[in-house]
Structures are given as structure tokens and as C-alpha cells.
Design brief:
By secondary structure, the chain is of the alpha/beta class. It contains 26 helices and 19 strands. The strands form four sheets. The chain has a six-stranded parallel sheet, sandwiched between helices. The protein has a six-stranded parallel sheet with strand order 15-14-16-17-19-18, sandwiched between helices. Strands 10-9-11-12-13 form a five-stranded parallel sheet, sandwiched between helices. Helix 17 crosses helix 18. The protein starts with a helix and ends with a helix.
């Protein structure tokens, strides 16, 4: 079996260690926040202790405050000294996947590194989904796993799994530790790598005998990471060229991704928006980076984005792309995406630049530092008289916003519309709440119908699309930011994958609130079956609503919530909606689960079908925007013909059956 040094890839080497931060507000977060650093112990004499004690001391030195995990044989030596730690809180979850997603939610809500812990074999493999999810969404996370004793590695010992080999494709880096003396250095490096450059998950797998052996503890004075030098400061010449192009463009769009939130660059983004006058689109991972109330915010682009946002990208002559990666859900058919646009692409990860879309001006750097340099460069262009007139562009975009607002049609049978539920939830809970979504229709409706006014208010599984994400991630977000109201917006399918973490919440005093958008179906799959499979609903009925044929709800979510020590509520009528949400908001001492039984045929609109051009966006089923109209001749008749408001859009209640 390979040694630790043989099994890890060459590790890049260090920028200066970052100072220890306090838990940050998103708008104040600095680059490298949460990274490990030399602390007081670096100057102290080595202390004798076990490897397990050294691990716990290392977590303390890395300023870890919470670990989500489950003990088991290989990691058990670490759990004994963890009991005595004065600063590290352990939250005992009910499933390792829940530990991983909780660590993600904690990281997303606080900007700090999330930490999860599991034993070898099945414990470690149960973390893989959360690790892959964190990798796709650039979430800083350290996963610590126990491994069988080093002499047993490679023998197919009980509960042995090569978790290092399994996770190499979905981690930023990983380590196998068989020498107890290397534990402090490895933990310091893991936290630094996870939190610097493009954030991501790091796995530390520690052999059981390394945890049991006697060693000495000394926190490292320096990080030995040869070759690892993330570029966070952009090249000034590239920034100046970007400013020149932005000043000259007649149809610019600021295409903003999650990297802006990761970098804590929302204030700088708002300043650029005001200075440039350009329209902004915020991706699924960037909702809240610019307040939805800002007049320049066109909303979310992509498969279920607003017509204005999708069209702006398609018709732009310049895309200034900040911390986004041209993923397929935004671009649609890549060859037809933004055909007339030149591209400025700024990203902290050089591998993303030019990966999917050819770039005219590449800028490698942290989004906050890029914006900090772009602002004075653009001011200089304006002072020299270089500034395009965007009035025609804005007339076109404003017309699209008037003609094609987000909306929905109430259900004809008088049942609850899911869009109405989520819209009222956002209005009653307000912009200071945090909203955490699973994956599917409820995720898209939550991204569309809640107004996000601050960075960090929207947390979801974007890249991997993991069902079961919402409840444990909301738990982690609430632990990290306990004074905020945290709503998990979940589907009845997603909820049943990880709802056991309600027990964790109830026993640990973590009063999250869960809104189950219960359409008795795997909703997004059912929508695709309606649209692309002739309404053949193969294995998507979950029987969680009022299943008349079966005579019972399986499960009954209210009874399930009560069994887990939570408050269980149900709402089935529009007239009860506000009172039910307000009743849930009034509960502050334990978790609340609300079963919103909604109309099952509602669909998510607008929509661009997978693999087709964004030019083929449908506003509702069978209704496509008219691209070639004369925006210069808007009249009162146009306004009268436009949809009247947020409930004027045809959806599946009429056309999806």
C-alpha cells in the first residue's frame, strides 16, 4: 500500500498564513478567511500526547468551533479527547451525509470552514455525496475520517475503504496520515487549502494506530505547500482592458456568479453597478449578491431564469463575468450562447477561464480584488470621456421585464399553488431570514419567488443537485448563525432522504423551520415526464398528499414531525396560508415542520429545455417571447396587452395535464 506521501499529489506552497478571523459577515469577508495559521503553540515546546489528542488540539488551533459527525471504531480514539475540548462543539448527527451537508450549510452561512467527521468504511463513504457537493459549489470544508490501522490497509480489513482514492476527483486535496507526528501539520495545511484560492473540500484520512500512538504536539510555524500559490491579485493591464471594454460597450451585462459571494464582494459589486449603469444577472449560486430590489438586477439567468436575464445574455455585446463558470444550466446550447458578445472572465480559478467559453480578456483573481481594481480603472475611462449610451439597451430590457414578469396561475380547483406558498413565506419571514433549498421544483420556485436582499440569505445545492440537502444544511446554517430565522424549503421527495436530522435539531436545540412543498411527487421529474414523455408518469408518485385511493398519507409529515420532537403543522387551503406561516414563525424553542399540500401539476416557468439554445426559452408552455418586436415603439396598447402582475402567467394548471 502506498504511504501518505506517495498517495497524495504534489502539494503547492504557501502564501503568508492568514490571521485568525472572527466569524464574518458575508459583506466583510476577506480572502483566505478561516484558514489555519501559526498560533501560540507554534512557539511553545512540543507537548507529549496521543495522536487523537493532537488532532483535537489541532482543531482548536485552527479555530474550529463546531464539528458535525458520528463516532465509529476507527475514529473512536479521537472522540475521547473531543469530549474534553473547551472550545470545539460536536453535533451528533443521524447520518454521515447529514454531517457533510451540515458542514456545508455552516460554511455557507458563516464564511468559515465547515468540519465533519466520520469513521472508516461506510462512515467515510456516506460522506462522499456531501464532499462532491461541496466540490461543485466551492464550499470550504474539511472532512476528517478514521481509517483502519496502517498495517491493515490494503488487506480488505473490516470497514476498510480507500476513501482517499475515492474522493480524489471530488476534493481540492486529500491526505492519508499514518504518522501521528504529521497530524498538526496536515490539519493546518488542510484548513489553509480549503479556505484559500477557490474554496473547496479537503479530506484528511487518519489511520487508527496513528490516533492511538504517543506523539508530541506542536502547531506548525510555517506551511510547507510548495507550488500552491493561488493568484488572488489580478493583473492590472487585464483589468484596464476590461474597463475600456465596459466603458465602450453598448449592450453590456454583468454576469455574476457565486464567486462574488465567496469573496465577500457584494459592496464592490453594487458600486460597479452604479458606476457602469450595466444590467446584472445573478446565477443560482449568486442570488443575493446584489439585492433583488436593485433596479439593475434582471434576476437569475439560465434554464429557469427570467426572460429578461436570459435575453440580456443572448443579445449582449459584452459579458463581464465575475466568479461564474459558464455552466450548462446558464448557457443552454453552448455554441449558441451570447453569440455577439465579447467576454471578460474574472475568476480565482484559472482552470475555469476559457474552459467552456472562449474569453477575450482573462482575469485571474479574487472577485473582491478584481472589483477593487476595476472600479478606479472604469472611473478613469469615464473621466476621459469614454462612456457608451445605454439608454436604448435599457429600454429593450425594461420592455422585457414589463412583458414577461415572473408569475403563476392559481390552481383552478382552489388548492394551494406552490409559488404562492413560497412567495408568502418570503414576504412573512422577510429578507433577514436564511432560505435553504433542496433540489427540484421547490428549489427553482424558491430562487424565483423569494426576494433576496443580502448575500448569504440563499443556500442550495447548485452544481451537484443533491436531494436531501436542505434539512441538514439548514441545521448547519442555524448552528453557524443562531440568531437568524432559517427556513429549509424542501420537497416531499427530498425531505424523506434526510429528515432524520430533525432528531439532531430537536435534541441539540437547533430550531430550524421546514416548509415541505408537498405535491405528492418527484416534481421536477414529473414535469419532464409531462413535457418530454407524453405524460407517462413512471414511478414519480410518492403518495404523500391526500392519496384518496390509498386512504392515508404515507408518511403523515405532521405525525412524523411530532415523533421527532418537532411542531408539525399542515396547510391545504390558500385562506389558511398566512396564519400557518405566522404560527410557524412564532415557534422559537424547537424545530417546526409545515406540510404545505400543493397542486401537483404546477410547473416551473420560464424554461429552456436541456441542450437547446437559450433563444428557445418558453415563458410558459407553448408561449415564447417575440424577439423581433420594435422595442422603440412601446405604447399604451403594449402595456395593456402585457401580463397584469405576478399571477398572470399560464402554467401547468391549464396546460400541463
Amino acid at each position: 500500500m502506498a504511504t501518505a506521501d506517495q498517495r497524495t499529489a504534489p502539494r503547492p506552497g504557501p502564501p503568508a498564513p492568514a490571521p485568525r478571523p472572527a466569524p464574518p459577515a458575508h459583506a466583510q469577508r476577506t480572502v483566505g478567511q478561516g484558514s489555519a495559521h501559526p498560533g501560540p503553540s507554534a512557539r511553545a515546546e512540543p507537548e507529549p500526547m496521543t495522536g487523537a489528542q493532537s488532532l483535537v488540539r489541532s482543531l482548536e488551533e485552527a479555530d474550529v468551533r463546531v464539528v458535525f459527525g458520528i463516532p465509529g471504531g476507527a475514529i473512536l480514539p479521537a472522540y475521547d479527547p473531543l469530549l474534553d475540548s473547551p472550545t470545539v462543539r460536536h453535533v451528533l448527527v443521524r447520518h454521515e451525509q447529514g454531517a457533510g451537508h451540515a458542514a456545508q450549510g455552516y460554511a455557507q452561512a458563516t464564511g468559515r470552514v465547515g468540519v465533519c467527521m466520520a469513521t472508516s468504511g461506510p462512515g467515510a463513504t456516506n460522506l462522499v455525496t456531501a464532499i462532491a457537493d461541496a466540490h461543485m459549489d466551492s464550499v470550504p470544508m474539511v472532512a476528517i475520517t478514521g481509517q483502519v490501522s496502517s498495517a491493515a490497509i490494503g488487506t480488505d480489513a473490516f470497514q476498510e475503504a480507500d476513501i482517499v482514492g475515492m474522493t480524489m476527483p471530488v476534493t481540492k486535496h486529500n491526505f492519508l496520515v499514518t504518522d501521528p507526528a504529521k497530524i498538526p501539520q496536515t490539519i493546518a495545511e488542510a484548513f489553509h487549502i480549503a479556505s484559500t484560492g477557490r474554496p473547496g473540500p479537503v479530506l484528511v484520512d487518519i489511520a487508527k494506530d496513528a490516533l492511538q500512538a504517543r506523539t508530541t504536539f506542536q502547531w506548525p510555524e510555517h506551511l510547507d505547500l510548495p507550488g500552491y500559490r493561488p493568484t488572488t491579485t489580478p493583473h492590472r493591464r487585464q483589468v484596464r482592458e476590461a474597463a475600456r471594454m465596459l466603458a465602450a460597450a453598448e449592450r453590456p451585462v454583468l454576469y455574476v456568479g457565486g464567486g462574488v459571494i465567496k469573496a465577500g464582494a457584494s459592496a464592490e459589486l453594487a458600486e460597479l453597478v452604479e458606476l457602469s449603469g450595466a444590467p446584472v444577472v445573478t446565477t443560482l449560486m449568486a442570488r443575493g449578491a446584489l439585492p433583488d430590489s436593485h433596479p439593475s438586477n434582471l434576476g437569475m439567468p439560465g434554464m429557469h431564469g427570467t426572460v429578461a436575464a436570459v435575453t440580456a445574455l443572448q443579445k449582449a455585446d459584452l459579458l463581464v463575468t465575475l466568479g461564474a463558470r459558464f455552466d450548462d444550466r446558464v448557457t443552454g446550447l453552448l455554441s449558441s450562447f451570447a453569440p455577439d458578445a465579447r467576454v471578460v472572465h474574472a475568476d480565482v480559478d484559472p482552470a475555469e477561464i476559457g474552459k467552456n467559453r472562449a474569453v477575450d480578456v482573462p482575469i485571474v483573481g479574487d472577485a473582491r480584488r478584481v472589483l477593487a481594481d476595476l472600479l478606479p480603472a472604469l472611473r478613469s475611462e469615464h473621466e476621459e470621456g469614454h462612456r457608451a449610451d445605454l439608454s436604448t439597451w435599457w429600454r429593450q430590457l425594461d420592455q422585457l421585464r414589463r412583458d414577461y414578469p415572473l408569475g403563476y396561475t392559481p390552481a383552478e380547483d382552489g388548492s394551494l399553488s406552490p409559488q404562492h406558498v413560497i412567495s408568502r413565506l418570503g414576504e412573512i419571514a422577510g429578507p433577514e431570514a436564511t432560505y435553504v433549498a433542496g433540489v427540484g421544483q421547490h428549489q427553482m420556485w424558491a430562487s424565483q419567488f423569494v426576494r433576496y436582499e443580502r448575500p448569504g440569505s440563499w443556500i442550495n445545492s447548485g452544481g451537484l443537485g443533491t436531494m436531501g440537502y436542505a434539512v441538514p444544511a439548514a441545521m448547519g446554517a442555524k448552528v453557524g448563525d443562531p440568531d437568524r430565522v432559517v427556513w429549509a424549503v424542501d420537497g416531499d421527495g427530498c425531505f424523506q432522504m434526510t429528515n432524520q436530522e430533525l432528531a439532531t435539531c430537536a435534541l441539540n436545540g437547533i430550531p430550524i423551520k421546514v416548509a415541505i412543498i408537498n405535491n405528492s411527487s418527484l416534481g421536477m421529474v414529473r414535469q419532464w415526464q409531462t413535457l418530454f414523455y407524453d405524460g407517462r408518469y413512471s414511478h414519480t408518485d410518492l403518495h404523500t398528499g391526500a392519496a384518496v385511493a390509498m386512504g392515508q398519507r404515507i408518511p403523515d409529515f405532521v405525525k412524523l414531525a411530532e415523533a421527532y420532537g418537532c411542531v408539525g403543522l399542515r396547510c391545504e387551503r390558500p385562506e389558511d396560508l398566512d396564519a400557518t406561516i405566522e404560527a410557524a414563525m412564532a415557534v422559537t424553542d424547537r424545530p417546526v415542520v409545515v406540510d404545505f399540500v400543493v397542486h401537483r401539476d404546477a410547473m416551473v416557468w420560464p424554461m429552456v429545455a436541456a441542450g437547446v439554445s437559450n433563444d428557445r426559452i418558453e415563458y410558459a408552455r407553448g408561449i415564447s417571447p417575440v424577439w423581433d418586436r420594435d422595442e422603440e415603439t412601446s405604447t399604451e396598447d403594449d402595456d395593456a396587452a402585457a401580463p397584469a402582475g405576478p399571477v398572470a402567467v399560464a402554467d401547468a394548471t391549464e396546460e400541463g395535464r
